[in-house]
Amino acid sequence: MLTAVAALALTILPLPQWLDIVRPAFLTLTVLYWSIATPRAGGVGLGWLCGLLLDVVQGPVLGQHALALSLVSYLAVREHQRIRSKPAFQQSLIVFGALAIYEFMVFAIDGWSGHPITSPLRWIHTVTGALVWPAAAAILSQTGGRRS
Amino acid sequence: MAAFGTAAGRPLQGRGGSPGFRFTLYAALSIVVMFLDQRHGWLERARYVLQASAYPIQLAVSSPSAAWRWIHESFEAREALQAENRRLQALQRDLELRSMRFEALARENGVLRGLRDALPPVAERWLAAEIVNVQLSSLRQRVLINRGATNGVFKGQAVLDDKGLVGQTTHIGPWSAEVILITDPEHAVPVQIERTGLHTIAVGTGDTTFLALPYLPPNADIKSGDLLVTSGLGGVFPAGYPVARVTEVHRDAVQPLAQVRAAPLASIDTDRELALVWFRADHPAAPIADATGDLRAGNATLQPQAAPPHPPSASAKGPGARPTTPPASSRPRPEAAAPATPAAEEGSPAEEGPPSEARAPAAEPEMPAAPAPTAEPEVPAAPTPTPPGAPPPEEQ
């Protein structure tokens, strides 16, 4: 839970414009990690809560990130056995896919609720998120060792 | 320790059912939440509480930069402070002289308008607010300020800085509020060109350096350097506050509309402090509260103007249809881009009241009427022999 708050802080940390675009979705990565590593403690509930917090901070509609994050964390929990056994590179690819699903959900809900942002820049963070994943997983496993 | 090794063999049906069941539950919950938030605004209360709970995190994130600024300010050199003091004193003297002149002008204006006393200024109360240095959403133009409902801030309140309009509040928490900037792609300000009185709408572009004016016909009387002020329509901003200055006007013969850009006067990307304003509701320059619906209708009628509307019916009716259309005063001047002129002509018989009050209701139907289909049947009656139903670009 503390890591989720830290990830949220990283998400709203003010950055210059160009760095902001490539900023990975730290909160999504954290939720993904916990869903894969400890499906019982993390999982769908954590995803939903974190998503709601994210909605309050930056979403135009409440429930938008909550839905997207709970979907992604559900997929991660369902496939956690298979994802864990993969090497780091393939894990990154899977994370890239999950981030793409997440961003597509947010994008679709943006459109339905009448707040569309069609700029292709919004998709960049899925790539950087996948690149950051090995490091993020390593850091999170350090904190997780103490916690569980 | 490899965290992936924990909880490996245990079944997942520990509490709350299988992940699939839980996901369905949470997904349904979030869809309900989204629906309520979007359609009815019933979750204002919940949002209020949640925003309060998120505020400590946001404050914590912004505290390093705030602390740095504080340290920087407290160790500033004495000479710099003295220089700033001198500069501020000169500025204050200058402003005092100007405000003296302003009071005289206001009295003179009141006399000219036939009022007994000069009106009090439209702004009743000011409150300075500081920007909390957090990133709300990367591709939207929002900022968080450190004033909320406990300071009396309400939703849809105008936010200014010392140079011009900045935005309006959207989500209110107890101690914080989210401000949508005028440059946000979802924001639009009803504005008036100060030189001509022409009404239009300035839309945010997502770029802090310019606004777009997408609803102007190519023959509109606008040029680079024109000042845009708020028009008072729309129910949020009072009339007469500076918004932006026109920087470039592109008139393309192929395009049905002129492409106009304007630079916001407020220094949006460097501001540290903003001002929240409360307005007198009974002041003639105050925002018209119920004009929001008209604005939306005006936007809707602006949409179909690219195609020539109903050419057969226009040619069939001809000049006979003329008396039924109300804005007959626009007939001698067939520019579709002079909405303020007929409005002023219509308002002139009822000039006893404050003019801005008389002008504002008359101008409301004028915004859609400027390039709207209703004005088109009059084209055959115009002195120039234009084909019936011709689009506005060919009239001039």
Question: What's this entry about, in short?
Answer:
The complex is a heterodimer of chains A (148) and B (396). Chain A has 148 residues and is mainly alpha-helical.
How would you describe what is shown here?
In chain A, 76% of the residues lie in helices and 0% in strands. Chain A has 148 residues and is an all-alpha fold. Chain A has one domain (2-147). In chain A, helix 4 runs antiparallel to helix 5 (64-78). The longest helix of chain A is centred in the last third of the chain and has 25 residues, at 88-112. Chain A is globular, with a radius of gyration of 14 Å. The termini of chain A are close together. Chain B has 396 residues and is of the alpha+beta class. Chain B has a domain at 122-303: Rod shape-determining protein MreC, domain 1 (Thrombin, subunit H). Helices cover 32% and strands 18% of the residues of chain B. Chain B is built from 8 helices and 12 strands. In chain B, strands 1-2-5-4-3-12 form a 6-stranded antiparallel barrel. In chain B, helix 6 crosses helix 7. Chain B is globular and about 75 Å long. Classes of the chains: A mainly alpha (148), B alpha+beta (396). Chains A and B meet through helix 1, helix 4, helix 5 and helix 8 of A and helix 1 and helix 2 of B.
Features of the shown structure:
heterodimer; A: 148 residues; mainly alpha; 76% helix; globular; B: 396 residues; alpha+beta; Thrombin, subunit H; 6-stranded antiparallel barrel; 6-stranded antiparallel beta barrel; 32% helix; disordered C terminus
Present the secondary structure layout.
The complex is a heterodimer of chains A (148) and B (396).
Chain A (H helix, E strand, L loop, with lengths): L1 H11 L4 H5 L4 H12 L5 H16 L5 H15 L1 H5 L3 H25 L11 H24 L1
Chain B lengths: L18 H22 L3 H31 L3 H35 L10 E10 L9 E4 L12 E3 L4 E8 L4 E5 L6 E6 L5 E6 L6 E3 L13 E4 L11 E9 L8 E6 L8 E7 L12 H11 L8 H7 L22 H8 L7 H9 L2 H4 L27
